[in-house]
């Protein structure tokens, strides 16, 4: 078994939809980024890549490459899983937390779990998503952006769980 951790942060910007876990969350601001800026999926991808010793999403999907402009992060997650599978790794589980003062994402968490589990080829109960605020502290507390953290466990494909 191997474990990886992922962290990502994006600032809010006007004129973009807010996408978290592949879900369009109703909010007057979106997140700034080259892709769809899905901070949750980015943290999950970094955790998976880290567990496999494969670097981070910047290495695999550079923001200087126009093919990734506006791309769904779920598409990138599927690519990460294909890369891990080629290296003979399978996902054990993922645990993630979204840190944001607003908006409230509780009503959308189940769909986020379903979306990410589908792209990772695992059961939904192997994907956990939680949300928390910072009690008004820091950039998230001031409403400047959103961050996410994730931990992922992977197993050799020849000896899963």
Automatic annotation (TrEMBL):
GO terms (BP aspect): isopentenyl diphosphate biosynthetic process, methylerythritol 4-phosphate pathway; terpenoid biosynthetic process
Metal-binding keyword on record: yes
Cofactor note: Binds 1 divalent metal cation per subunit.
InterPro entries registered for this protein in UniProt: MECDP_synthase, MECDP_synthase_CS, MECDP_synthase_sf
Keyword Lyase among record annotations: yes
Molecular functions (GO terms): 2-C-methyl-D-erythritol 2,4-cyclodiphosphate synthase activity; metal ion binding
Keywords: Isoprene biosynthesis, Lyase, Metal-binding
Record field: catalytic activity: 4-CDP-2-C-methyl-D-erythritol 2-phosphate = 2-C-methyl-D-erythritol 2,4-cyclic diphosphate + CMP
Superkingdom of origin: Bacteria
EC code(s) of this entry: 4.6.1.12
Positions of a divalent metal cation binding: 8, 10, 42
Site, Transition state stabilizer: residue positions: 34, 133
Positions contributing to 4-CDP-2-C-methyl-D-erythritol 2-phosphate binding: 8-10, 34-35, 56-58, 61-65, 132-135, 139, 142
Residues covered by the 2-C-methyl-D-erythritol 2,4-cyclodiphosphate synthase domain: 1-154
Pfam families reported for this sequence: YgbB
Pathway(s) served: Isoprenoid biosynthesis; isopentenyl diphosphate biosynthesis via DXP pathway; isopentenyl diphosphate from 1-deoxy-D-xylulose 5-phosphate: step 4/6
Assembly and binders: Homotrimer.
Cross-referenced PANTHER family: 2-C-METHYL-D-ERYTHRITOL 2,4-CYCLODIPHOSPHATE SYNTHASE, CHLOROPLASTIC
Matching HAMAP family: IspF
Function: Involved in the biosynthesis of isopentenyl diphosphate (IPP) and dimethylallyl diphosphate (DMAPP), two major building blocks of isoprenoid compounds. Catalyzes the conversion of 4-diphosphocytidyl-2-C-methyl-D-erythritol 2-phosphate (CDP-ME2P) to 2-C-methyl-D-erythritol 2,4-cyclodiphosphate (ME-CPP) with a corresponding release of cytidine 5-monophosphate (CMP).
Assigned protein family: Belongs to the IspF family.
Name of this chain's protein: 2-C-methyl-D-erythritol 2,4-cyclodiphosphate synthase
Species for this entry: Desulfoscipio gibsoniae DSM 7213
Protein encoded by which gene: ispF
